[in-house]
Design a protein that fits this description.
Layout (H helix, E strand, L loop, with lengths): L2 E4 L6 H13 L5 E4 L4 E4 L6 H10 L5 E3 L2
Antiparallel strand pairs: 1-3, 1-4, 2-3
């Protein structure tokens, strides 16, 4: 199972880098950031989604869970 997050404020490669670094800081290692879709795909099913959302909020990239 994957968690998909929509990050509407993601607009450039610098944004992708900041999001990538933030996820790595909280030990999320299996993910893909897609700038063209403004989405982050978390591949690990045992991740703490609330922690991820909080971390992204801290770096000014609020996200929401997308159901797919």
């Amino acid at each position: 199972m994957k968690t998909v997050l929509l990050v509407p404020d993601m607009s450039c490669n610098h944004c992708v880098m900041r999001i990538t670094n933030a996820l790595k800081e909280i030990n999320i290692t299996e993910f893909e950031v897609k700038l063209d879709e403004k989405k982050v795909y978390i591949k690990s099913s045992d991740c703490d989604v609330e922690l991820i959302l909080k971390k992204l909020e801290e770096i000014d990239y609020p996200a929401e869970i997308v159901m797919e």
